[in-house]
Amino acid sequence: MVTIAPHLPETGRLDQGHLTAWLAGLARHRSREEIHRITLALQLVEEVHGDEPTWGGMQHQLALVQSAAILDQLKLDTPTLLAALLSDLPESETERAGEFGAQVNGMLRDLSRIRTLAVAGSGDSDERQSENLRRMLLGLADDVRVVMVVLAKRLQLIRVLKYLDEDEQKRIADITQRIHAPLANRLGIWQLKWELEDLSLRYLRPDEYRDIARALEEKRAEREAFIAQVIERLQQRCREHGIEAQISGRPKHIYSIWRKMQRKHVDFSQIFDVRAVRVLVESVSQCYEVLGMVHGAWQPVPGEFDDYIAHPKPNGYRSLHTAVIGEDGKPLEVQIRTWEMHEHAERGVAAHWRYKEDGKGDAELERRIEWMRAWLEQPSDVQEPDSDAEFEARRIYVLTPQGRVVELPKGATAVDFAYAIHSSVGHRCRGAKADGRMISLTQPLESGQTVEILTAKEEAPSLDWLSPSSGYVATSRARNRIRQWFKKQNFEQHVQLGKSSLEKEVKRLGVPRPDLPRLLERYNFTTVEDLYAAIGRGEVSPVQVASAQAPPEERPVEESIAEKAALREHRPGRSHGQVMVEGVGDLMTNMARCCKPVPYDPIVGYITRGRGVTIHRRDCPVVKRLQEEQQERLIPVTWSEEQPPGAFLVDIQVHAGDRKGLLRDITSVFSNEEVDVLGVKTRSNRRKETADMRFTVEVKDVTQLSRMMEKLNQVPDVVEVRRQT
Q: Once rounded to an integer, what is the mean pLDDT over residues 474-496?
């Protein structure tokens, strides 16, 4: 158990004698250099905080030193102690902490964010919100030691609750029980968990706490002494039978007793694991052998034996549980399992913390907790968390202005956040602020931000929000709500919206208008108006329709030249390239430089002499100008369904108002979209203050092209972006 350092007073103020004695205790297991750094931190704390009081009139400096002392007992490294001592520095003094190194500064930044957000989000007692806040605290801590500092400071605070008024006692105890004790549990910091839970219960349910304390009829030290005697006796029997066993035990703490009484609806007399021992052995046969020793040494309690080895729990948990009567006439629980079963119970799908909290599996959360616990369990001479073990979080946690925590996938935007709050908020969303500053609706949010949605009176989501290339939404919830809204609107309005969206996309991509009647079967519609309406409702992407190829007409291909006759010799088959020539396999193809087709432009093949088939866009001016005898060289081709990785040249025309920095802003879009620019031609009209730019770029397909052009349209002063034909 983590005790109050003997050299420090429980409350009041520190004097030099206290500090000297505490530092002398630290010097027994820390280097001279480490003690020097801690001394410098204490001097800074003294200078900044002085005799400034904190909770219950306690000296602020004493509270900080007590928190650091808790971390010292947990064998945390010196940077962690320094972070605890400096954790309450005001913003104006944070620069002075720079001399303590990057590790300490990083922890102080995280602690500052956590302190602000924890205060904002801790008022809602809803369990879902409590869980989101716990996850947010874990997600904000890039360094596991930050969470340890948070828990140590909370334990220090709850130890002095008796000096505060009753309302403050209940408020702090409630937050501790909902947020901090489960965090300590998940990280396996049992020493902190037990005390946080017991002290929370003491102030939240004082009568029940006192009743259980009286029912125990003995001091904790006496119960621990009894457990020690049981361990020694059982260990001796295992040695006699040649069984190598690890035996550990602890008396049940008051909160665990109370919770089991609540869960099983029983009174104290029916709790048989107030005192418990766990035995770990190598094999299943040894489990049952030890069980026989236990029942031979003590009298079993009828009906209190559970064989979870022969009959595992639904979550896969395996162990033997039995209850016996000790020499003093009081019950003792014994758990017996193999090391493999224990590892599974502690780290696998049957993990103890999920069982205790009635939690559901969450792969990402479990991986992060696993990493944190692994670091806490590593040898004490390892000073820093292994950065290689870190992983990028897949979720973010942001706050509403009222302090409610909202969980979203990484990459979510303010529009996703608005729909997560309520569909009506999403439909009326017109802008957003993050931490008081205006942000773009396409800007990905970050964990810890407080987000405010600016709304209009009328619901009017934008159809552009549904475009994958626009970057407005990342969650299926938001996308589905937007689609449902448009689906409810007038059919004719949808038709007009669909026509407008498709025409805009056709013009922007520089592709010929698709043959919609021949595309109806592909999209399962009976009329062109239905297809337009589906585009208008956001059910079908205008990018897909604009770049769709109609099925080829079934007509014979005249083979009037020698090149076509040669094609007959090839066996029919599928092309291994990017396009397929109908009825022909393994034929050399190349992309025309004049029109630069990309997947999945409407295309046609032109048979050349000695260079295979050149692929043109159907609307290519070169193809349109072919003489009648050359038209016979055109053959149907289609894009292969599976495109190999590659890049395609495209010419983009940008018309914009001329200004300083325009070219820089446009090229930054190419950079962010990871698009290579191979050529640039610019022309400025100073009289009209306009600029025309032509960029030759490499793209993967039409989807990337559409997304890039959408982002270019959002650049200030850009009037028009289109694909050059």
A: 85
Residues 111/87, Cβ–Cβ less than 8 Å: yes
Cβ-contact 699, 647 below 8 angstroms? yes
Tokens 């403050």 identify what position? 168
Rounded Cα distance between 37 and 79, Å, is: 9
Rounded-to-integer distance, Cα 264 and Cα 258, Å: 10
Question: Hunting for tokens 């002494």 — which residue is that?
Answer: 225
pLDDT in tens, 282-308: 999 999 999 999 999 999 988 889 999
Angle, helix 516-523 to helix 528-537, in steps of 10 degrees: 60
SS3 content of the chain, % helix, strand, coil (to 5): 50, 15, 35
The helix (run of H) or strand (run of E) holding residue 426 is helix 423-427
Strand pairing partners for 684?
A: 691
Burial of 547-582, coded b for 16+ CB within 10 Å and e otherwise, reads bbbeeeeeeeeeeeeebeeebeeeeeeebebbbbbe
Residue listed under structure tokens 């409810």: 488
Q: 278 with 320: CB under 8 angstroms?
A: no
Pick the closest to residue 234 from 284, 303, 281 (CA basis). Answer: 281
- Output DSSP code: residue 96: G
For 339-399, give the DSSP string.
HHHHHHHHHSTT-HHHHHTT----HHHHHHHHHHHHHHTS-TT--S--GGG----SEEEEE
Q: Which two tokens stand for residue 400?
A: 């509403």
Reading the block at residue 217, the tokens are: 């009829």
Residue 520 DSSP class: H
134 burial via Cβ count (<10 Å: 0-12, 13-18, 19+): buried
Q: Domains, the chain, ranges and CATH?
A: 16-204 (1.10.3210.10), 220-348 (3.30.460.10), 395-485 (3.10.20.30), 489-546 (no CATH), 562-639 (no CATH), 648-723 (3.30.70.260)
For helices 254-264 and 190-204, what crossing angle results, to 10°? 70
- Whole-angstrom Cα distance, residue 515 to residue 553? 12
Q: Are strands 451-455 and 690-699 parallel, antiparallel or unpaired?
A: unpaired
Angstrom distance (rounded) from CA 283 to CA 290: 11
Rounded Cα–Cα distance for residues 554 and 642 (Å)? 24
19 touches 13 (CB < 8 A): no
Instruction: Give the C-alpha separation, 138 to 135, whole Å.
Output: 5
pLDDT tens digits for 649-680?
Answer: 888 899 999 888 888 889 888 888 888 888 88
Local structure of residue 10 (DSSP, 8 states): S
Start-to-end CA distance of the chain, whole Å, equals: 76
Q: How far apart are CA 342 and CA 279, in angstroms?
A: 10
Distant-in-sequence, close-in-space partners of 529: CB < 8 Å, separation ≥ 6: 495
* Residue ranges in 16-126 assigned as alpha helix (H): 16-26, 32-49, 60-73, 78-85, 102-121
Whole-model pTM: value is: 0.54
The string of pLDDT tens digits covering residues 137-153 is 776 666 778 888 999 99
| Cα–Cα distance, 122 to 173 (Å, whole number) | 12
Closest C-alpha to 449, from 483, 484, 425, 416: 416
Name every residue whose Cβ is closer than 8 Å to that of residue 224 and which is 6 or more positions away in sequence: 250, 251
Two tokens, residue 331: 């019950």
Size of the chain in residues: 725
* CA 166/CA 78 separation, integer angstroms: 36
